[in-house]
Amino acid sequence: MELVSSLAIGIVFGAGIWLLLRPRSFQVLTGLMLMSYAVNLFIFIMGRVWLDEPPLTPAGTVPDPRILADPLPQALVLTAIVIGFATTALYLVVMIGARGLTGTDHVDGEEPEV
Amino acid sequence: MRPEHLAQHLVILPILLPLLVGAVLVPLTQGRHQFKFALSYASVVGLLVTACALMMNADGGAWPDGIGVYLAANWAAPFGIALVADRLSALMLLLTAVLALASLHFAMQRWSRIGVHFHSLFQFLLMGINGAFLTHDLFNLFVFFEVMLAASYGLVLHGYNAERLRASMQYIAVNLAAALMFLIGTALIYATTGTLNMADLAVRIAAMGPDQVALLKVGVAVLALAFLAKGAMWPLGFWLPTTYAAASPPVAAMLVLMTKVGAYVILRLWLLLFGEQAGLAAGFGYDALVWGGMATIVFGAAGMLSTDTAGRMAGYSAIVSSGTLLAVIGYGQPSLVTAGLYYLIGSTLAVAAFLLLIELIDRIRTPGAAMLALTMEAWAVEDTPEEPRGKGVPAVMAFLSLAFVACALMIAGLPPLSGFVAKFGMFHALLNPEPGSGAIGATGFTLIALVIVSGLIAIISMLRFGVRTFWAAEIVTPPRLQLSEVAPITALLLLSLAMTVQARPLFDYLGRASADLHDAGKYARRVLQQPPVPGPATQGETP
């Protein structure tokens, strides 16, 4: 389980970095999205791998940390997803604006001279 | 609610006030721009007053140890989010409010009207910056960073044109990537320590074993990348000159402050986590900060020499000041940090004033400023009567050139303005190491040499720009200036003069702030032992 998740995160993040370094703005955006998916998974896994354990304490009992998943990384992931989503959407708008105003989808706003 | 109950909420006011005002401003249409401006202005004045009150509380003994702790939602410290106001954060809040007031005043006639939602974004930016100064929780810091960045994306785009759009594309991409680094770092720190509260982190780091410390160092290093990208350390700061040159002047002036947020967080986090009391992790990363800072100074100075556009020059001078600060922090000597803080305030004021001034100077270089006049007509800005055009030096030119000289002196660090006092203080601290820490080494001398050389380069490039603009231009038509544009620049420069005259009390205050920062144990005590406010139910039970 640990190996599979770390490999998955690594591959997604690596693909994201590669796309981030590409010259077209849509590739950059896709790269950022992939990277943020990988980071969200990473935060989640950093709360340790728990199987079938609830992150909530049953009412009226003293919680036992050994049988409960850590709820904090899950809360962090939620926040990170929301913020990442919003900023990516904003980047998309800027990207479309740049495409309309400069007439190219190159990140420099102009086609490189060949 | 009794007044003393309200007073304890003072710490959260710098976050709440701009949030509420910004939200109220969103539905108002641009047709009521005067009302919007007035509301926004009132909020900034409120922030100024709050910052002064916080500063008096921190320095006047109203709080134990000069540290005010606010437990958000009344959760005890390591579990909930704590906001902490101490001497340094109160000072940074004051600096933010002063700069915001100057920028907003500058934007009154024109810049706040050439697009929608300028004021809302401006307030949200203030909320993010203030939050970053106050919060004592790493993940909360991330949230405030994102609030600040999201608002700044909108503001950089303000006055939408192709140049700003191009600059924004890069600015946003770099900062989104940096935000991901922030998250990775935070997750790693949580995984190793199990806490995100900074004071709690400081306590736990001291008791850590070697295995955990290794992973923690990785986490903090990744986290630091995010701040250093914000603080424009070489090689993470290539986005900065383009963005500064492209942004509209009032926004660029606020961006100057945002680079200082990066330096502030590094200062706070490093001294708290990796000070002398940090056990195995003590002293981590200081060398990287010193040498990285010095590389940044070299990069910034080279950039200043290489460019002849004023906007980029201001950007590079912000990089130089950022580099100087990082090197000062990394050098790890309390008295040097004191001088560094003085330098931070002075250079922020100077670069911000310079960025505001550039736009006015540009009106000389592009006679008539056709595009600007058009915008002014489109938005029905009341023109001032035309300036008299006599022979000799018109008052407008005299103001522009004198203000330019003052900015140049401050940025280069020549007497008699605050830049000189700051550099003198740094050299004094470097040449007089504290007893027991040994003589000044090669690193110290390199730093001194770099600061001197970068000052020389700054004065060369500013001179070149000044000569070309004021003396060598063929036809100089004195531009029309509004009082609302002249006043904030004058105020910023006068403030810098006041800093020079009142250097002694300011240095004393900064010395106390620096002493606070170097005592990590005090923060841990104050933050972790702050009791929650007893609720009405418990008050009834306990006599």
What does this entry look like structurally?
The complex is a heterodimer of chains A (114) and B (543). Chain A has 114 residues and is mainly alpha-helical. The longest helix of chain A is centred in the C-terminal third of the chain and has 32 residues, at 71-102. Chain A has helices at residues 2-20, 25-46, 71-102. Chain A has one domain (2-49, 67-102): Helix Hairpins. By secondary structure, chain B is mainly alpha-helical. Chain B has one domain. Helices cover 72% and strands 1% of the residues of chain B. Chain B has 22 helices and two strands. Chain B has helices at 3-7, 13-25, 33-59, 87-106, 118-134, 138-156, 162-193, 198-206, 210-230, 239-246, 249-273, 286-306, 310-331, 334-365, 370-378, 395-412, 418-431, 442-471, 483-501, 503-517, 520-528, 536-541, and strands at 68-71, 82-85. Chain B is globular, with a radius of gyration of 23 Å. The chains are: A mainly alpha (114), B mainly alpha (543). Chain A binds chain B through residues 20, 25, 28, 32, 35-36, 39, 42-43, 46-48, 72-73, 76, 79-80, 83-84, 86-88, 90-91, 94-95, 97-98, 101-102, 107-109, and chain B through 139, 142-143, 146, 149-150, 153-154, 157, 160-162, 165-166, 168-170, 172-173, 176-177, 179-180, 183-184, 186-188, 190-191, 196.
Distance between the termini of chain A: 48 Å
Shape of chain B: globular
CATH class of chain A: Mainly Alpha
Count of discrete domains of chain B: 1
Q: What is the global morphology of chain A?
A: elongated
Helix segment tally of chain A: 3
What value does the Rg of chain A take, in angstroms?
A: 19 Å
Distance between the termini of chain B: 20 Å
Q: Extract low-pLDDT stretches of chain B.
A: 368-392
